[in-house]
Design brief:
eight-stranded parallel beta sheet; FBD domain-containing protein; alpha/beta; about 15% helix; single chain; three-stranded parallel beta sheet; 13 strands
């Protein structure tokens, strides 16, 4: 069966399932020779409360509704889940697709975005923009490799130059695992009571620091003087500053190297 026929058959199955008034749906595409394309028009349900999409899927979300108002969302977006409470995305989507799908779930309360669960899918960057008024639990887990080779994994570095934006005033629980991005733009999280942070520098300062004229590669070998040293960057100050009302904070060992001194107070 061709790839197009396989995708068409799956879309017909999803469409039929949605018409049955399901409350919960889990979609999983195991490793295959090609990614299965889901048509946005089949991702519509007035009854669905929980949705999980994981594996080798692609969703070509229409960009027309990116800046739409909430009251017009059902007319401007193909994807639309007016009753959805829980959404889990473990797929390799285009980075702009994540906020559009989230926007299509106006009463969403739980959001999980896991990147890198499938080793053959490469580095993924969902979860860099989460803007939603009703989300209460947010879990974002970005694959954090043990060693970063700046020459082989340049895509990591280029994506990390973006600004991460969290605007979730109803958030109560945050579990955030990622390499450090250049900047964080975070709104008030006064409702947040528990946070788990696992943040990692692109290059640990145990290898070299800002004042060093030399640096070591991931194997611990001294690099040539002619090789440009990768920059140490990332500012989590804005992220840490808004978790001031929490009662429980969990930090990974790597986060202690990243976090500013004020986090210990």
């Amino acid at each position: 069966m061709s790839h197009n026929h396989e995708s068409a058959r799956l879309n017909r199955w999803i469409w039929t399932a949605m018409e049955q008034g399901l409350l919960e749906l889990h979609l999983y595409a195991p490793a295959s020779r090609s990614t299965v394309n889901i048509e946005p028009r089949v991702l519509r349900s007035n009854t669905l409360l929980k949705l999980t999409i994981s594996g080798h899927y692609d969703i070509d979300v229409d960009s027309d509704g990116e800046d739409s108002d909430d009251e017009d969302i059902d007319e401007s977006l193909d994807v639309f889940f007016p009753a959805l409470k829980s959404l889990s995305l473990m797929v390799a989507l285009d980075i702009e697709s994540y906020p559009r799908i989230i926007h299509a779930c106006p009463v969403l309360e739980e959001l999980t975005i896991r990147n890198g669960d499938f080793s053959d899918m490469g580095p993924l960057w969902g979860g860099t923009v989460v803007e939603h008024a009703s989300i209460k639990r947010l879990v974002i887990a970005t694959h954090v490799p043990d060693h970063i080779d700046y020459y082989l994994l340049l895509e990591y570095f280029q994506n990390a130059c973006q600004t991460v934006r969290f605007q979730a005033p109803s958030l109560v629980y945050l579990d955030y695992s990622s390499l450090v991005f250049r900047k964080y733009d975070v709104g008030d999280l006064d409702s947040l009571v528990e946070a788990r942070l696992s943040l990692k520098l692109w290059r640990s300062t145990s290898h070299y620091d800002y004042d060093d004229d030399y640096y070591y590669d991931c194997s611990g070998s001294l690099c040539d003087d002619d090789d440009p040293s990768p920059p140490i960057f990332g500012d989590v100050t804005c992220l840490v500053a808004v978790i001031r009302n929490i009662t429980t904070l969990h930090l990974s060992p790597d986060s202690l190297e990243v976090s500013p001194p004020s986090i210990y107070l």
